[in-house]
Amino acid sequence: MSSRFAPGPDPHSTGHVISTVRALMRTDGLDVSLTSIARRCGTTRTFLYANWKTVSALHLRALQTELAQAFDTAHRACPSDGTVPGITGHLTEVVRVVRRHPTTAAVARSSPEAFCAAYTATEGPLMRVAVERIDDLLHPLCPHGGVWGDPELGSRSWKILWIARPAALCPAAAGDRLREGTLDNAFAELLRDLLAPWAAAAR
Predict the structure, then answer these.
(1) Do residues 190 and 163 touch, judged by C-beta distance below 8 A?
(2) 45-59, pLDDT tens digit by residue?
(3) d(CA 168, CA 188)
């Protein structure tokens, strides 16, 4: 028989802390403070500082988790079959998920300077998460070695990220069918151009 007094989540577990930060960032973006995280988690600022050092580290970990979740959500809605059309459809869905995600809009509202900087960032942990996910999707295009087996294909992940960001980081378009359609179509067309050599090789 189950107890009526089942314990709640461990306030000190990494999963609980990061899920709390994610929930807070969906409304407050980068304005989420260490104090508000500690209060919502049921722990202390001292504990968070001892384990994370800065609130920025918590923001980053939460954003990495949200980005990985966007790829997983897109996989359920529009899985890639390893072909250029399949990869294009999947990544277009990823872009749409990120654009419509409440955290995207909240970061844009709370920290416009940081949001603008995200358009041109070329390095950093968040960028690496995106590139690794794109690498995985491109791998089937070169069965013998994947992106590392084809120098030209290996350069495409960063190029795809470069063209994806303007389409993804446009929360003002979310819900506007015309604007979203324009962004999605432009991204898909540029992506097909980038992957055209591998589409031809697969025929």
Answers:
(1) yes
(2) 999 999 999 999 999
(3) 12
Name residue, tokens 């929360």: 171
The whole-number average pLDDT for the span 147-172 is 93
Question: Positive or negative CA dihedral for 101, 106, 109, 111?
Answer: negative
Distance between CA 29 and CA 111 in Å, rounded? 8
What is the distance between the alpha carbons of residues 166 and 104, in angstroms, rounded to a whole number? Answer: 12
Among 36, 41, 96, CA closest to 70 = 96
Its pTM stands at 0.89
Distance (Å, rounded) from C-alpha 93 to C-alpha 88? Answer: 9
Q: Is 150 helix (H, G, I), strand (E, B) or coil?
A: coil
Contact predicate 194/160, CB 8 Å = yes
